Amino acid sequence: MPDFSVDFRGRTAIVAGAGSGAARAIARALAAAGANVFVNDQNPDRVDAVVDEIRAAGGSAAGMQGDITNRFQVAAMIENARDAFGRIHYLVNGAGVFKAEPLLAMDEWDWRRQIEVNVIGAFFCTQLVARVMADEGGGSILHLSSTAGSPYTLERGVGYVAGKAGMVAMARQAARELAPAGVRVNALLLGHIAEDDMPTVTNPTNALQRAGHVEEVANAALFLLSDAASFITGAAVPVDGGG
Fold this sequence. Notes:
Shape: globular
Largest sheet: 7 strands, parallel
CATH topology: Rossmann fold
Number of domains: 1
Structural class: alpha/beta
CATH class: Alpha Beta
Strand content: 15-25%
Strand order of the largest sheet: 3-2-1-4-5-6-7
Helix content: 40-55%
CATH superfamily: NAD(P)-binding Rossmann-like Domain
Number of strands: 7
């Protein structure tokens, strides 16, 4: 599969939720393109695995376990990334929680946890990293959202749909407010992507009639993060095989 090629040498990216799925593929792709990658995940074993994987391939990586719904842990993540690599150029909000429960049976804890990770955690990361970026000359932020929430829905999963829709709205508003500081903010709307930690979709109904690959998400992510997309901000770009 051909990869999008861009030069990220001398740049640093924080990837939240990089322990699995599309976020992990983005972390690997950024490192392969020359970026220093700071890996975050709530699971410490996953952090170590991704860091080791990147380093084994000749890339530059460091990381720490942390819960992005905790503002203080997000602040510590940013400071550790700056200590390791200096200036922060990119942020990928890739953490997500999915619970396939119907609205009428949704447990309050599951509802709150999905909103906390998918919206509040992404907000903490965006706000705190953007403050650093604004002081250091700008940067690029990417939210991994979903076509479930914008523009579609799911048979079940009200917490996930609400959270992912919230990420898109937040990206658009943040793009407007942060533009004067030289910080771009965009979102990817993921359709049926083959990921280990997401439900398997059989017989996808998109135009290409197949599930996407995490590497295809990574290609789109690298483009939007890079200077090649310097005139794109506030966009919600579908990676869904044509709906």
